[in-house]
Each structure stands twice: as C-alpha cells, then as structure tokens.
C-alpha cells in the first residue's frame, strides 16, 4: 500500500498514467484495497457478511461503459435503431485471445430502453474492428449531443425527479452537468415550447464553465447557469411581489465519492472516514437550503456517490428533523421497477480515525462519548481533532423517518458504481424558512477530498469557495431576504458582488431596428416572443449574438441583480450576426444557428422553409461549398430564387442518392453568389453522413482540379461568407456558446 502511505488527502491528483489517463493496467488490482475502508463499512453493516466478498470484488473491477441517448432529439429512435440494426449484429461473436465478449445491451431499468451498457474491456474495444467502429460512432454522436456517456447510477436521480416541461427546477451542485443535461431533456421533450426553468448552479467557477459547455450541446430557453455556494443560494424575485420557489430540486452534493472507486482509483489510497464526517455539515446546509426553496408539493432529490451513512441517511435525517412535519421521504419502490436497490439505513455508526502513519478507526458510540474522547486526548492531538456535529449520529426518531425508502445502489447488484438517492417531498401548504439547524462549528474543509462520478476530484474548500465558510456560520443573517416586492431598480441596489466579472444581461427593445429586420426577413409570426431577446451588454444592443429566453428566465433576469446571482449564462443562442465583406448584399445580417432551428421553426413564415430532397443533402455534405449549378434542376430553381444569406431547408424523408432519411430534417443553409453551404459544423456533418449514407462522405478538399486562377479567386471570395459562417458556427461551439457573451 505504498500509494496510501504517500497519499496526501486533498492534495493528491486523480490517478493518471503518462498519457494523462487513468488506466486499469497501471493500477494493479493488488493495490485496490484499503483496510480502513473495509473495517469501517463492515462495522457499519451496510451489507451482510456473505455479501462482503462479492461487494469488494465488484469494486475492484473496471466499470463498464454506459451511455444514454438524448431523448429530446427528434432522431433519438433513429440512433437507437442504428445501434440495434447496424452495430449489434457485427458485435455478436467477437473473440480476442480465445475469449468471447458480449455485445452491448440495453440497461433494463432505464425507461424506453434508451440507455446502453458496454461490458467489453478497453483493450477489446481498441483491438476488435466491430467494437472500434462502434466506439467511433459513440464518440462522434456524443460530440454532437445525440448521446451522453454517463455512469448508469448517475442517471437515476434525474429520473426520480419526474420533471415535467412546466416545472421550475434547480440543480444545486451541477457541474460538470451530466444530470443537468437529463433535466434539460425532460423540460424540453422534442423542443416543445417549454415554459419551465432550470437553474444549474455550481460553486466552482471553473466547473461552471464546464457546465455551460456541456449544456451548450443541449440548449434551452429556460436555462440559467449560476456560480453560487448552494448552501446560501439567494432567494430570487419574480417581480410583482412573487418569490421564486422550485417544483423540483436536485441536491447532488459534493461527497467523499467512495461509490466511484471503480474509476476514481486514487480513492483506494487515500480513503478515510474523516472525509465523510467533514462533508456532512456542508451537505446538510445544502439540503436545508434546498428545502427552504421548495414549493409545497414539490420534490427534492438528494444524492451522493458515497456509501457512507453519515453523508447520506444522517444528512437526510437531520434535515427532516430540522423541518419537522414539512417533508417526507417518498416511497420510490414503484419507480424504475427493474432497478435493483437496497433500502436506506435507519441505524448507523460514527467513527473517527487516529492521525499518524498507521491510521485506526475509533468508533464513537454517541456524540457525548465522542466529546469526552476528545477531552481525554493529549493536548497536541486535541488541537488536531475536528469538532463534528451531533447530527452525524442517528437521531432518536431515526426509525420513524422512513429512511428505508431511500435507495442504496451497490456495485455487485447490477455491475455499477455505488450511489445513494433519496426522494423527498414537501408536504403541507406553509411556506416558511427553516429554523436554523444546530450545527457545531463547521470543520475546515481544505484537506477533504471530494469526488464526483466523472472521475474528477477537487477539494471541498476549492469547490465551495469563496463564501462557503461565511455562509455556514451566519446562515440566517447572510441569507438574503425575499425580494419579491422589490422593483428591478430596487433589486439592482442589492449588494453587488464586486469580484464578479461577467458582462451584464439586458433585454433588447422589441422595436429595435435589428429585431425588426430579423422579423421581416424570417417572416416571424406575431406569436414570436420578440421581447425575449437577451444580450450581454448594459445597453440592450444587439451586437453579435441574440439569446432567446422564455418568460420565467426573463422575470428572473429582470428582477434580480445579475452579480448577486452570479449569473454566468441565460437562455440559448437565437440569432447570430453574420459579418462579412459582402454584408451589404445580404438582406439580413442575422442567421439562425443550427441548435436553435427547432425552436425557430414554429414561428417562421410558411414560405421560409424550403422542402428539398436527400440528393441535395448528399451534395451539401459531400462538398463544403457546392456550386449551385451542380444541384438537380429542381434544387437549382429554389436556390436561384432565395436571397443571399441564411435560409432554412427541410430535407424530406426518402431513399435516394444511396442514402436513407427516415424523418424530415430541418437545417440552416447559406447562399453565397454561386454556391451553397450547410451551416452545421464538420463533426455534425460527418455524423449525419454516417447516419444517412452509411459512411462519411465529407470531402472538404481545398480548391482543386485545373480551374483557371481567376475563377478560383472569384469563387474563393464569394465563398468567404459561407466559409466564415461555417467557421463561426464551429468556433462558437466552444467559445461563444460557452460564455454566452456578445
Ligand atoms: C458530485 S459533483 C456534481 C456532479 C453533477 N451533479 C453531475 O451530475 O455532473 C459535486 C459538485 O458540487 C460542487 N460543489 C462543491 N461545493 C459546493 C457548494 N457549496 N455549492 C455548490 N456546489 C458545490 C463541486 O464543484 C462539484 O461540481
């Protein structure tokens, strides 16, 4: 256990090989042990004696790859069918070194069979052609947002939230955003015009940008990203004296992460029971804040990727007791019926660990026993000992709280990671702020390792900075008052966070000349919410990007100071300005980016969408700027009629040009003087090509053949606009969309 001895809690980096990747081979199974871990959990009795070996064995094994299909996308079933009909048949009899490997299979408990599991180890995926092809497909479809790689158990909390499109939702600790994506999908099934809201929040500034990037693949008019300490998320106003309360909250709190031992291998070396004890009070504060933000009848899901009852049942029990009679644990046994789960515990133990090289577990039978243990320690040790909260221990009424309804997921039940999920409902009509919970002074968090199921470890202090400690001890004072009755101007006077350096958010005057030109060009119907265009400057000037938000996001942005909310982004890109040398020739300087097409379609004038065929699609995929003269006569006709710039086309289903399209596909195109371009990024084009034509037919060769120089120059100049448009569409993926700035 050399690793363990050298490990410095909180400072050790995730295990990485020379290529920067954690690897099964580089971390031998013999090192996947931790005496303290075994002693602690055996002592806790989280499993019966006979289950201990399969539990540990399972924990030492590589985690299978799991992914789910983005259900809100129109072609979700096309992707699912492709896996079944194109990839599965060729993966039936894969053998390597005399061993047969099973093909991927659908996860039996995931609704609609939209999630898959791949058991074959990485070396098989690397070496077998059918698996390699499948892997390439997975990577490509993941990049364009049609699939999400996500640990199976991590998919459970959002499913149990049962989000509906009208819900106001809060994801309190959201980065890097795998569950956020699931919530967005549930809020926006098939791009319905959802009135719902999701505030996705994380305390770690860097990780909020990961979150923005991740949600960029799943844009939503109802999405807000904030960078707050979840335990002191301020109460937000909706104007007109209304305060924002949530129908659904996910508190997927920072935790010690020992449920992720199968992939966060470094946890084997540094696991200690003090980490869970340390995190308990932050977890409790976050859960209590969640409770205070709920609507009556609303549902709250508390989850961790830890086995530790002090991070799980103890937190839930303390929160329920703080808000007696206002919340109850939902019996989720009827939900996800094929999911194997264990009941939550109603009794557990608390331990501390000794310091020094050979750490030992010391069971603490009660809070009082623990206090006298600390008192009896030699003074030097006492100084080092933390003061834990009494809420770590099971309360006297633990049996009455319904903790058995919580879900414990253990690895050997269905070959997953470990997880804890508890579904809590707010009962009664009274909306009151919770009484302050009696917590001991919060322990310092800087040396506590916090892990998430993505394989990233952070220290809790970094994760919770800057206001984590401040918020904990003075929660009731520092918690801002409900500002429901304040006007926008008044709310702007609320104390600003001067360290917050984001650009302001303002709505554009719907009568602004640019908005009028957009409405004209795209023949936007009356119902189009022209007053919901947001920009990132103080003056409401449409400069480069016009973001679209729904009404509830607008109410929040307008009635709360953006720096107090630490607002990072709101809504989704609706229109992007197309600056080019030829701008003067274009009727409209704005184009619809591909990700907002489905949002825009219901509002476009009837003649603004041009129906065309699979052969035209083939040409637009094959070449980057195909000349108009190369298309069929029918396509040339409409191409010659449309103005220069952005047009929306609908490729109708059919079998032609060696391709198959099973459902209509709506996409933006760009017309230059003599050529056309499909305005989707290259990766998306390649994946679309694979889906429609069975191979990647994109060529994208630069000017070629024996064209005379003048013609080539002219063509290159004309195509500059389309080129720039495409480049922008690609470049903005990472930057513009990530930062939501104009
Ligand atoms: C378990 S991870 C969340 C994983 C995420 N829900 C997902 O599914 O991708 C916990 C997250 O909590 C964040 N965090 C830590 N302390 C926090 C706090 N006080 N408030 C809000 N977020 C916090 C961390 O930065 C980390 O991103």
From TrEMBL:
Region named Disordered: 1-28, 455-497, 704-742
Localization in the cell: Nucleus
Residues noted as binding S-adenosyl-L-methionine in the record, renumbered to the chain: 173-179, 202, 229, 252
List of catalytic residues: 305
Pfam families: Methyltr_RsmB-F (PF01189), Pre-PUA_NSUN2 (PF25376), PUA_NSUN2 (PF25378)
Main location group: nucleus
GO molecular function, one term: tRNA binding
Gene3D superfamilies given in the database record: Vaccinia Virus protein VP39 (3.40.50.150)
Domain SAM-dependent MTase RsmB/NOP-type intervals: 55-427
GO BP, sorted A to Z: tRNA methylation
Basic and acidic residues composition bias: residue spans: 471-480
Feature: compositional bias, Basic residues: 1-16
PROSITE patterns according to UniProt: NOL1_NOP2_SUN, SAM_MT_RSMB_NOP
Biased composition annotated in UniProt, kind: Acidic residues: 710-735
Presence of the UniProt keyword Hydrolase in the record: no
A GO-annotated cellular component: nucleus
Keywords: Methyltransferase, Nucleus, RNA-binding, S-adenosyl-L-methionine, Transferase, tRNA processing, tRNA-binding
Database matches in InterPro entries: MeTrfase_RsmB-F_NOP2_cat, MeTrfase_RsmB-F_NOP2_dom, Pre-PUA_NSUN2, PUA_NSUN2, RCMT, RCMT_NCL1, RsmB/NOL1/NOP2-like_CS, SAM-dependent_MTases_sf
Family named by the database record: Belongs to the class I-like SAM-binding methyltransferase superfamily. RsmB/NOP family.
Protein name (Swiss-Prot/TrEMBL): S-adenosyl-L-methionine-dependent methyltransferase
């Amino acid at each position: 256990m050399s690793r363990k001895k050298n490990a410095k809690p909180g400072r050790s980096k995730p295990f990485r090989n020379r290529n920067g990747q954690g690897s099964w081979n580089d971390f031998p199974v013999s090192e996947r042990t931790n005496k303290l871990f075994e002693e602690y959990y055996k002592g806790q009795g989280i499993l019966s004696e006979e289950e201990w070996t399969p539990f540990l064995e399972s924990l030492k094994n590589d985690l299978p790859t799991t992914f789910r299909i983005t259900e809100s996308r129109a072609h979700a079933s096309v992707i699912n069918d492709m896996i079944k009909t194109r990839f599965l048949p060729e993966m039936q009899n894969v053998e390597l070194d005399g061993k047969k490997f099973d093909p991927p299979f659908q996860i039996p408990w995931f609704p609609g069979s939209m999630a898959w599991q791949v058991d074959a180890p990485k070396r098989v995926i690397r070496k077998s052609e059918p698996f390699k092809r499948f892997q390439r497909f997975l990577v490509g479809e993941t990049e364009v947002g049609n699939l999400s790689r996500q640990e199976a158990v991590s998919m459970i909390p959002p499913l149990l939230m049962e989000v509906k499109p009208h819900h106001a939702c809060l994801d309190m600790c959201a980065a890097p955003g795998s569950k956020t994506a699931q919530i967005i999908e549930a809020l926006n099934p098939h791009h319905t015009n959802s009135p719902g809201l999701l505030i996705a929040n994380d305390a770690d500034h860097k990780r909020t940008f990961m979150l923005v990037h991740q949600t960029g693949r799943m844009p939503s008019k109802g999405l807000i990203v904030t960078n707050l300490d979840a335990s002191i998320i301020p109460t937000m106003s909706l104007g007109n004296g209304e305060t924002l309360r949530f129908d659904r909250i996910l508190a997927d709190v920072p935790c010690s992460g020992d449920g992720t031992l199968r992939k966060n291998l470094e946890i084997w070396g540094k696991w200690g029971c003090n980490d869970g004890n340390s995190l308990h009070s932050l977890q409790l504060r976050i859960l209590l804040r969640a409770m205070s933000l709920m609507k009556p009848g609303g549902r709250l899901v508390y989850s961790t990727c830890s086995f530790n009852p002090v991070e799980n049942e103890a937190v839930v029990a303390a929160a329920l007791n703080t808000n007696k009679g206002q919340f109850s644990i939902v019996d989720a046994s009827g939900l996800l019926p094929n999911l194997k789960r264990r009941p939550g515990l109603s009794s557990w133990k608390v331990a501390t660990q000794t310091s020094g090289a050979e750490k030992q577990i010391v069971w603490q039978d009660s809070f009082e026993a623990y206090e006298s243990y600390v008192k009896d320690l030699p003074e030097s040790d006492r100084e080092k000992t933390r003061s834990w909260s009494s809420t770590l221990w099971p309360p006297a009424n633990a049996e009455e709280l319904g903790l058995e309804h919580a879900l414990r997921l253990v690895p050997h039940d269905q070959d997953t990671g470990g997880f804890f999920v508890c579904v809590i409902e707010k009962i009664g009509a009274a909306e009151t702020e919770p009484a302050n919970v009696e917590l001991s002074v919060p322990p310092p968090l800087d040396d506590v390792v916090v892990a998430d199921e993505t394989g990233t470890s952070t220290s809790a202090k970094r994760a919770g900075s800057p206001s984590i400690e401040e918020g904990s001890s003075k929660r009731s004072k520092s918690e801002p008052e409900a500002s429901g009755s304040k006007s926008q101007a008044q709310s702007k006077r609320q104390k600003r966070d001067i360290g917050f350096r984001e650009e302001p958010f303002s709505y554009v005057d719907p009568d602004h000349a640019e908005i009028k030109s957009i409405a004209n060009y795209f023949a936007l119907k009356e119902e189009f919410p022209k007053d919901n265009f947001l920009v990132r400057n103080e003056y409401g000037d449409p400069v480069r990007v016009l973001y679209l938000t729904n009404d509830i996001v607008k109410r929040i942005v307008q009635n709360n100071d953006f720096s107090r909310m630490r607002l990072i982004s709101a809504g989704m890109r609706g229109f992007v300005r197309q600056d080019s040398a030829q701008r003067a020739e274009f009727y409209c300087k704005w184009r619809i980016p591909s990700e907002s097409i489905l949002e825009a379609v219901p509002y476009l004038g009837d003649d603004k969408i041009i129906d065309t065929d699979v052969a035209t699609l083939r040409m637009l995929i094959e070449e980057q700027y195909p000349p108009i003269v190369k298309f069929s006569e029918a396509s040339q006709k409409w191409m010659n009629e449309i103005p220069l710039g952005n047009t929306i086309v609908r490729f109708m289903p059919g079998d032609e040009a060696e391709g198959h399209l099973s459902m209509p596909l709506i996409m933006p195109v760009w017309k230059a003087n003599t050529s056309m371009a499909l305005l989707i990024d290259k990766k998306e084009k390649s994946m679309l090509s694979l889906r429609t034509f069975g191979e990647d037919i994109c060529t994208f060769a630069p000017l070629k053949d024996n064209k005379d120089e003048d013609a080539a120059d002219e063509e290159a100049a004309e195509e500059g606009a389309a080129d720039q448009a495409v480049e922008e569409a690609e470049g903005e993926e990472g930057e513009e969309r990530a930062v939501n700035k104009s």
